[in-house]
């Protein structure tokens, strides 16, 4: 008989404790800032892509989730500073294990991870994210490539002066990684 | 401890011609004159290097291979380059593994090499397979002390349409310049400037235009020379490599085929010391885009009642083809195999003709040909393997005579061997031809830079008179050929009546070995596999009852079923088809425009009652065909070629082979529909059966004896036409390759100065060569041709000699300014 009240006692006392349940679909709590979420292909402050299509991310990937094909920048169609750009870029989120080795491999800090984690779908095709989906949004001051190099004469200028250029316009968030 | 080495020394005397030295504490015997770096390699000690290449002369340019050397107990004052130092008796060598001095010297050299080397490995095509990258990791310093600005150059600099130069990455090892000078012999690329500004470059007015330029990309130890066609296409770790064999000519080069996700991305020269060493030509390296050409036929097609080809199923197409052919069997079926078949396919064509079509009307020759040629092939070539004449024997021969054969244009690796032999062993390479072509100049014993001056190794002849010239060859040529000489004869000999006979006679007279070098990869194999009107597989004559009985037994046929009369050759088959003597044709890879008379060939194809075409791409034949059956390209099948030596060159599919069928399988199924069994379902089955058949009993086939003809004499305003095809031209398998096409030799109409004056031609100005069929207009270039002769490239841009002029080698043409 005493056991009966003891059981209800637990229920009753819990009613006054702080709830740990996340109201997930209604609420959208951001993950920790360094959460390994969806990838992002960043841009230089003028909108050119940072990705040079070097495939080091694909090489580093232990799950073979990344597919890259390089392309040749021409004077008529320039997507990134320098000679080479990533013509095809795909990440297969059915394979990605979120380990972040690709981020470490990236020589231009083009590939970073956001803390966005809502990646579920009802078919396989849509979980292969293409370059268009992965590219960072165009912020004020950026221009959709292809366009000529606006911030220097060659790719060296972009890399050497990159931090200065990024600081010049505080409104632009060149990393743009955080879901707020 | 101290006694043991003395005992060992006594027990093991130094072999004759060898020296004994110590490397990293290991005692080793090395042949005199061997380079230290090779001896290290044999011991498994890898000394880092860039400029050293086993097939190039030592240069000592990069200084990366420094080792510590002690001679006679006295250490040399400075570390020595092991790639230029030869071994000596009593030498004590310490590499970076045992000597801190050598290790430090190598680190220092590497640091200096990297001072101006850009840090662009992520975007460099060599990244991942780069000797500089690897050796910087294995023997370089972990950090650089250089903090200043690196030297920069504009990049990439296209030195031809297919080779891109990045001077920042270059470490000045001179592999490319040495290759061009020593191996190819066309040194358009060289070192410019001095000191810190030293760089690789080309002359402004002379692009890097060589048939072998792709090799410089492959041997470049850094990413300084890269391929325009492969630029940024993939990374080494993406590629799946398959060993392959080149399908473009009869040289039979081994190659590496690199594929990524179902596409061939690049091809590299394979390493086969017996055949192509480590080289290949640019056509073999770059011409593979035909695989993905929009002209590729992927589905069988049947011509409907409305006269339009409609894609259909294999079942329907094969039924239609079999019905048409079965109905035509009474009227006669001709089989034209084409010269690009694998041995297995050629065997299937030959067997199809005999078993399913009941005829000997089968021929592989899709080019000008003659009955004399068949006799010559039966007497000298069929069944002959590399034991009679191979690349090594060719290289060792004291003298070689090329007859109707332009080695660089028609079999580039044979040319490289001839040049190597001329350069290294003093081989005399004579050419029976019309003018001092680049190949003639570069196989002359004066093998310095190719100079335009006439060389002494050209035996000049008016087109058509080659046979007569061969009969009265200069004394020194005959003397050189006597005793181990080699005569290389090309397929173009068929265009000159009596030339094959003259070659036979010359071989008998001098004891020289005869080698037949056709232009296409499949011809040699098709000959041995019996896709010939007069020969069954293994060189068995069709007229020989015993040979027929042997084949009948092997094929499981009733005795007496094989046709007994020799068949018709390609021209005769097409002529018979044109007048209705043949009711149907089965045609493989054949281009009517390659034949002696394209108009007559097209008439035959047009007039024949029923035409079945087995093709890869849409062509002049498929346009006329009633049934078109697609066949697999080499990249998607297995098989083998016989190269000009008679060496079997097997290959396996590089790409997924599902959904495409090789010729032998298509023919097998087609024959089954016609109630005949070929048992050639797979190339392996066909090869196995052909192997079991073996060679026929060697009946001494009589050498041809066709008398030479008088060459035609040009009237006023006329000239005798000399022509052959260039390596890089408008060939069907070189489609969709703008980078390769950009390095084709420019097309010129060549005449000598006297003829130019007589005909009113001016160098550099256009000249029009015409016949009653058509005209070709090309700029004039002067060359040392005989009087009254004009030379045209056979199938280059604007010079389609056969299809436009309807004329060939030795014919008279009108020439006007």
From TrEMBL, chain A:
Class in the EC hierarchy, top level: translocase
Keyword Transcription regulation set for record: no
Residues annotated for [4Fe-4S] cluster 2 binding in this entry: 61, 96, 99, 102
Keyword presence, Disulfide bond: no
SUPFAM superfamilies noted in UniProt: 4Fe-4S ferredoxins (SSF54862)
Membrane topology of the entry: Peripheral membrane protein
Single Gene Ontology MF annotation: oxidoreductase activity
UniProt keyword terms in alphabetical order: 4Fe-4S, Cell membrane, Iron, Iron-sulfur, Membrane, Metal-binding, NAD, Oxidoreductase, Quinone, Translocase, Ubiquinone
Catalysis performed (reactions): a quinone + NADH + 5 H(+)(in) = a quinol + NAD(+) + 4 H(+)(out)
Entry binding sites for [4Fe-4S] cluster 1: 51, 54, 57, 106
Binding note for cofactor: Binds 2 [4Fe-4S] clusters per subunit.
Family label: Belongs to the complex I 23 kDa subunit family.
Subunit structure: NDH-1 is composed of 14 different subunits. Subunits NuoA, H, J, K, L, M, N constitute the membrane sector of the complex.
Name used for this protein in its record: NADH-quinone oxidoreductase subunit I
From TrEMBL, chain B:
SUPFAM superfamilies: 2Fe-2S ferredoxin-like, 4Fe-4S ferredoxins, ADC-like, Formate dehydrogenase/DMSO reductase, domains 1-3
Annotated ranges, domain 4Fe-4S His(Cys)3-ligated-type: 101-140
Any matching Pfam family: NADH-G_4Fe-4S_3
Keyword Cytoplasm in annotation: no
Enzyme Commission number: 7.1.1.-
Record's keyword annotation contains Glycoprotein: no
Cofactor(s) required, per the database record: [4Fe-4S] cluster; [2Fe-2S] cluster
GO molecular function, one term: oxidoreductase activity
Reaction catalysed by this enzyme: a quinone + NADH + 5 H(+)(in) = a quinol + NAD(+) + 4 H(+)(out)
Keywords attached to this entry: 2Fe-2S, 4Fe-4S, Iron, Iron-sulfur, Metal-binding, NAD, Oxidoreductase, Quinone, Translocase
SMART domains: Molybdop_Fe4S4, NADH-G_4Fe-4S_3
Domain 4Fe-4S Mo/W bis-MGD-type, residue spans: 239-295
InterPro entries in the cross-refs: 2Fe-2S_ferredoxin-like_sf, 2Fe-2S_ferredoxin-type, Asp_de-COase-like_dom_sf, MoPterin_dinucl-bd_dom, Mopterin_OxRdtase, Mopterin_OxRdtase_4Fe-4S_dom, NADH_UbQ_OxRdtase_75kDa_su_CS, NADH_UbQ_OxRdtase_ferredoxin
Family per record: Belongs to the complex I 75 kDa subunit family.
Protein name: NADH-quinone oxidoreductase
Origin species: Pseudonocardia xinjiangensis
């Amino acid at each position: 008989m005493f056991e009966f009240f003891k059981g209800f006692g637990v229920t009753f006392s819990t009613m006054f404790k702080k709830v740990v349940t996340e109201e997930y679909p209604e609420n959208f709590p951001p993950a920790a800032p360094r959460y390994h979420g969806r990838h992002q292909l960043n841009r230089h402050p003028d909108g050119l892509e940072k990705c040079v299509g070097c495939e080091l991310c694909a090489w580093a990937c232990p799950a073979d989730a990344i597919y890259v094909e390089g392309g040749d920048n021409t004077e008529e169609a320039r997507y990134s500073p320098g000679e080479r750009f990533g013509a095809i870029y795909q990440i297969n989120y059915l394979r990605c294990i979120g380990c972040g080795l690709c981020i470490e491999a990236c020589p231009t800090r083009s590939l970073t991870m956001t803390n966005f984690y809502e990646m579920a779908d009802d078919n396989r095709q849509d979980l292969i994210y293409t370059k268009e989906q992965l590219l960072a949004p165009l912020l004020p001051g950026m221009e959709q490539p292809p366009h000529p190099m606006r911030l220097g004469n060659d790719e060296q200028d972009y890399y050497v002066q990159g931090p200065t250029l990024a600081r010049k316009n505080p409104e632009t968030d060149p990393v743009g990684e955080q879901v707020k | 401890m101290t006694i043991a080495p003395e005992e060992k020394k006594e027990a093991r005397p130094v072999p004759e011609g060898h020296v004994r030295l110590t490397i990293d504490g290991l005692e080793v015997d090395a042949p005199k004159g061997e380079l230290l770096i090779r001896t290290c390699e044999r011991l498994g000690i890898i000394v880092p290097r860039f400029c050293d290449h086993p097939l190039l002369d030592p240069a000592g340019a990069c200084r990366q291979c420094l080792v510590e050397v002690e001679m006679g107990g006295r250490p040399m004052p400075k570390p020595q380059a092991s790639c230029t130092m030869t071994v000596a008796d009593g030498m004590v060598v310490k590499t970076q593994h045992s000597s801190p001095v050598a290790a430090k010297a190598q680190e220092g050299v590497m640091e200096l090499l990297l001072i101006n080397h850009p840090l662009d490995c992520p975007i460099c095509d060599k990244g991942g397979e780069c000797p500089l990258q690897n050796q910087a990791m294995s023997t370089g310093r972990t950090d650089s002390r250089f903090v200043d600005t690196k030297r920069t150059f504009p990049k990439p600099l296209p030195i031809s349409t297919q080779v891109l130069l990045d001077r920042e990455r270059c470490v000045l090892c001179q592999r490319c310049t040495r290759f061009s000078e020593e191996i190819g012999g066309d040194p358009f690329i060289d070192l410019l400037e001095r000191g810190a500004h030293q760089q690789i470059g080309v002359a402004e007015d002379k692009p890097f235009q060589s048939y072998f330029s792709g090799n410089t990309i492959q041997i470049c130890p850094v990413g300084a020379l890269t391929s325009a066609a492969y630029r940024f296409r993939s990374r080494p770790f993406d590629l799946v490599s398959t060993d392959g064999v080149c399908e473009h000519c009869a040289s039979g080069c081994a190659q590496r085929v690199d594929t990524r996700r179902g596409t061939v991305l690049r091809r590299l020269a394979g390493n086969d010391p017996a055949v192509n060493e480590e080289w290949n030509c640019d056509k073999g390296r770059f011409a593979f885009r035909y695989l993905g050409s929009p002209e590729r036929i992927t589905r069988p097609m049947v011509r409907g009642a409305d006269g339009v080809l409609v894609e259909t199923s294999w079942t329907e197409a094969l039924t239609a083809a079999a019905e048409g052919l079965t109905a035509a069997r009474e009227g006669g079926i001709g089989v034209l195999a084409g010269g690009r078949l694998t041995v297995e396919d050629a065997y299937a064509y030959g067997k199809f003709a005999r078993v399913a079509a009941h005829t000997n009307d089968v021929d592989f020759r899709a080019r000008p040909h003659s009955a004399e040629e068949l006799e010559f092939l039966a007497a000298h070539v069929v069944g002959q393997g590399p034991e009679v004449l191979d690349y090594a024997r060719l290289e060792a021969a004291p003298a070689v005579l090329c007859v109707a054969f332009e080695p660089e244009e028609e079999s580039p690796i044979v040319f490289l061997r001839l040049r190597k032999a001329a350069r290294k062993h003093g081989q005399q390479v004579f050419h029976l031809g019309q003018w001092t072509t680049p190949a003639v100049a570069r196989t002359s014993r004066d093998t310095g830079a190719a100079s335009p001056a006439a060389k002494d190794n050209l035996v000049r002849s008016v087109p058509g008179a080659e046979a007569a010239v061969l009969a009265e060859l200069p004394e020194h040529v005959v003397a050189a050929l006597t005793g181990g000489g080699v005569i290389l004869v090309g397929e173009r000999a068929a265009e000159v009546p009596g030339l094959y006979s003259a070659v036979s006679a010359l071989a008998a007279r001098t004891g020289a070995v005869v080698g037949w070098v056709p232009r296409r990869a499949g011809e040699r194999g098709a000959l041995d596999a019996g896709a010939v009107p007069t020969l069954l597989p293994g060189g068995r004559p069709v007229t020989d009852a015993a040979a027929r009985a042997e084949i009948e037994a092997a094929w499981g046929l009733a005795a007496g079923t094989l046709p007994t009369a020799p068949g018709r050759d390609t021209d005769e088959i097409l002529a018979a088809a044109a007048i209705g003597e043949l009711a149907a044709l089965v045609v493989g890879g054949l281009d009517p425009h390659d034949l002696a008379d394209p108009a007559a060939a097209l008439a035959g194809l047009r007039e024949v009652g029923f035409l079945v075409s087995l093709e890869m791409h849409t062509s002049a034949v498929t346009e006329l065909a009633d049934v078109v059956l697609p066949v697999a390209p080499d990249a998607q099948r297995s098989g083998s070629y016989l190269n000009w030596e008679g060496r079997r060159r097997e290959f396996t599919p590089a790409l997924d082979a599902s959904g495409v069928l090789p010729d032998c399988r298509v023919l097998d199924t087609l024959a089954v529909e016609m109630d005949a069994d070929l048992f050639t379902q797979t190339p392996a089955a066909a090869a196995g059966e052909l192997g079991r058949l073996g060679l026929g009993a060697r009946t001494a086939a009589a050498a041809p004896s066709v008398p030479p003809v008088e060459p035609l004499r040009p009237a006023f305003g006329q000239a005798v036409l000399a022509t052959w095809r260039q390596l890089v031209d408008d060939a069907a398998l070189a489609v969709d390759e703008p980078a390769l096409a950009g390095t084709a030799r420019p097309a010129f109409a060549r005449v000598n100065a006297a003829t130019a004056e007589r005909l009113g031609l001016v160098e550099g100005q256009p000249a029009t060569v015409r016949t009653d069929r058509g005209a070709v207009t090309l700029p004039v270039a002067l060359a040392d041709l005989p009087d009254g002769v004009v030379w045209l490239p056979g199938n280059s841009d604007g010079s389609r000699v056969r299809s436009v002029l309807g004329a060939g080698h030795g014919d008279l043409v009108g020439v006007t300014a």
